[in-house]
């Protein structure tokens, strides 16, 4: 490895105190994982070169957000030609669509996606209208199975994801396997369709086969305007809220946590990935301010990267799901309640894998915050 190698990015940070967007040059040194920041406007060093293990090279791509010492930086451009040449072709993004028949296996499929080295940058459980389905399957209009296809894709929720990776379009198609699950089981037994597919229509997942198709389909599910697109699936009845925290997402635990929730008998009726800012998190956590001594650390963790919010349904959902999450401190959870989510996946009292609603009267309010307020 070149000891002098460094990558430079232009990054923006919104300063809530000054209500200003501040711009920095962010330098990353792969030899030791250190970072350095220069204040662009004032032409001075803002952060001296410091080893920072929470950021790695795979996090550094245009459009991503990284958190360095509590500042959430939005990477908006390459800082020099060397960085652009080295990294501009490194990442592709594509659509990973889990069809209605895949929803019971969503945890396993997401775990396969993570293990294959993809990064999930957007995720939403949604219900397609007939018009959205016909727009999506416009190329299949003349096929004899077209009507059955439309009926199937609109019958119940799907999960759409934007995934990133090296040669993501072709690599995702390899992971999916052939459209015919029988052929997949014969020729590509480790593929997703081999494991979970039934037939040519109920074949669990979809992936575009070209850059142009990927761009078109991602725009359908995740409009660049930031609004519109297929509706979320929140029901707002008999529900409680769960948030899978950023550290668990970055550690590739999302699929495993979804499997554990399903196997415990809970229904996940809505799911969406969010990149929250400090203002949103403080608003959501307001009830804990002045009550929990770790409030600031809790806030910082929640906006340190993407989180995934879930609407959980069951009778007496808030009480039963809170019990399943276990004590807030994972060490205590491992001692007293070893089968709980925090015992299995938590690292510390702050990085304890999940947030769950504490009070029964707050279950609906917390679900509404994510799936109504943040949606608008």
Automatic annotation (TrEMBL):
GO CC annotations on file: axonemal A tubule inner sheath; centrosome; ciliary basal body; cytosol; extracellular region; gamma-tubulin ring complex; nucleoplasm; plasma membrane
GO BP annotations, alphabetical order: brain development; cellular response to leukemia inhibitory factor; cilium assembly; CTP biosynthetic process; determination of left/right symmetry; DNA catabolic process; epithelial cilium movement involved in extracellular fluid movement; flagellated sperm motility
Keywords: ATP-binding, Cell projection, Cilium, Cytoplasm, Cytoskeleton, Flagellum, Hydrolase, Kinase, Nucleotide-binding, Nucleus, Transferase
SUPFAM superfamilies, A to Z: Nucleoside diphosphate kinase, NDK
Compartments where found: Cytoplasm, Cytoskeleton, Flagellum axoneme; Cytoplasm, Cytoskeleton, Microtubule organizing center, Centrosome; Cytoplasm, Cytoskeleton, Spindle; Nucleus
Complex and partners: Component of sperm flagellar doublet microtubules. Component of the gamma-tubulin ring complex.
Family recorded in the similarity comment: Belongs to the NDK family.
Name the record gives this protein: Nucleoside diphosphate kinase homolog 7
Gene responsible for this protein: NME7
